[in-house]
C-alpha cells in the first residue's frame, strides 16, 4: 500500500504533499534569489525543471523514511507560500528541520506556525527523539523562528560552510522530545 504524506492543519495553514502542478508556483517563489542566498541547497538560478525534479523526490524519500517535505499553503486563499521539511531522518534518533517562505510572505509568522506543526509531526508521528536545525549567523530571522518553537541554541560552527565563495558561520539549534513533550502534552 502506498504511504501517503499526510495533511497537517493549523487555523491558518495546511501542510500537504507537493504535486507536480506546484512546480510553476515553486519556481515563481524561488525566482528572485533571496531564498537561495541563505539556504544550503537551493541554487541561485532556479528553473521550473529543478522544481519538478525536486518534487519528484519527495514520495520516495517519504517511503524510505529518510525525509518528509510539505508544501505550506495558506488555507483561506489556497496559496502555496513555502516549503518545510524534515531531512536526514535517522530512525529512533533524529532529523534535520529546514524551510523557506516566499519573500512577499515573510514576517507574518507563517514559518513559525509551520515549524510548530512539523515539530509535533516529527516527535509524535515519526518518533524521532531530537530535531535539529542550522542557519547562517547572518540570517537571524531563521534563528528567531527556531527560538519561537522552543529550540535551544547549541553553538556556532565558525566558518563551517562555503557559500558562493564566502565562509559562513553556522548557528546550531536543537529540540529534544523529552523536553518538548513536557510543554506540549
Ligand atoms: C527565515 C524565514 C523562513 C522566516 O520566515 P517567516 O515566515 O518570515 O518567519 P516568521 O514570521 O515566523 O518569524 C520571523 C521572525 O524573525 C524576526 N526577524 C525578521 N528579520 C529579522 C532580523 N533581521 N533580525 C532579527 N529577527 C528578525 C521577525 O520579527 C520574526 O520574529 P517574531 O516571531 O518575534 O515576530 C524566511 O525569511 C525565509 O524563507 N528566508 C529565506 C530562506 C531561509 O533563510 N531559510 C532558512 C534557512 S536556515
Secondary structure layout:
Layout: E1 8-9, E2 13-16, H1 23-30, H2 34-38, H3 48-64, E3 68-74, E4 79-90, E5 94-101, H4 110-126, E6 130-136, H5 140-148, E7 152-163, E8 166-176, H6 177-183
Parallel strand pairs: 5-6
Antiparallel strand pairs: 1-2, 2-3, 3-4, 4-5, 6-8, 7-8
Helix pairs in contact: 1-3
Q: What descriptors fit this protein?
A:
single chain, 185 residues, alpha+beta, Aminopeptidase, 8 strands
Spatial extent as radius of gyration: 16 Å
How many individual domains? 1
Question: SSE order, as H and E?
Answer: EEHHHEEEHEHEEH
Secondary-structure arrangement, i.e. CATH architecture: 3-Layer(aba) Sandwich
What is the tally of beta strands? 8
How much beta, percentage-wise?
A: 25-35%
- Average pLDDT value? 96
Main beta-sheet strand count, sense and barrel state: 8 strands, mixed
The CATH topology assignment is Aminopeptidase
Structural class: alpha+beta
Shape: globular
Oligomer: single chain
Molecules bound to protein: coenzyme A
Low-confidence stretches: none
| Helical residue percent band | 25-40%
CATH class: Alpha Beta
Number of distinct helices: 6
Amino acid at each position: 500500500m502506498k504511504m501517503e504524506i499526510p495533511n497537517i492543519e493549523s487555523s491558518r495553514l495546511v501542510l500537504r504533499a507537493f504535486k507536480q502542478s506546484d512546480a510553476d508556483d515553486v519556481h515563481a517563489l524561488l525566482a528572485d534569489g533571496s531564498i537561495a542566498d541563505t539556504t544550503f541547497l537551493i541554487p541561485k538560478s532556479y528553473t521550473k525543471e529543478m522544481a519538478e525534479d525536486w518534487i519528484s523526490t519527495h514520495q520516495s524519500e517519504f517511503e524510505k523514511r529518510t525525509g518528509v517535505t510539505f508544501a505550506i499553503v495558506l488555507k483561506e486563499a489556497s496559496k502555496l507560500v513555502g516549503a518545510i521539511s524534515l531531512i536526514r531522518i535517522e530512525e529512533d534518533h533524529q532529523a534535520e528541520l529546514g524551510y523557506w517562505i516566499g519573500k512577499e510572505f515573510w514576517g507574518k509568522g507563517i514559518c513559525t506556525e509551520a515549524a510548530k506543526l512539523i515539530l509535533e509531526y516529527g516527535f509524535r508521528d515519526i518518533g524521532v527523539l531530537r530535531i535539529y536545525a542550522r542557519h547562517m549567523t547572518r540570517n537571524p530571522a531563521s534563528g528567531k523562528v527556531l527560538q519561537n518553537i522552543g529550540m535551544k541554541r547549541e553553538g556556532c560552527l565558525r566558518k563551517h560552510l562555503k557559500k558562493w565563495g564566502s565562509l559562513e558561520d553556522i548557528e546550531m539549534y536543537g529540540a529534544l522530545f523529552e523536553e518538548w513533550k513536557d510543554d506540549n502534552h
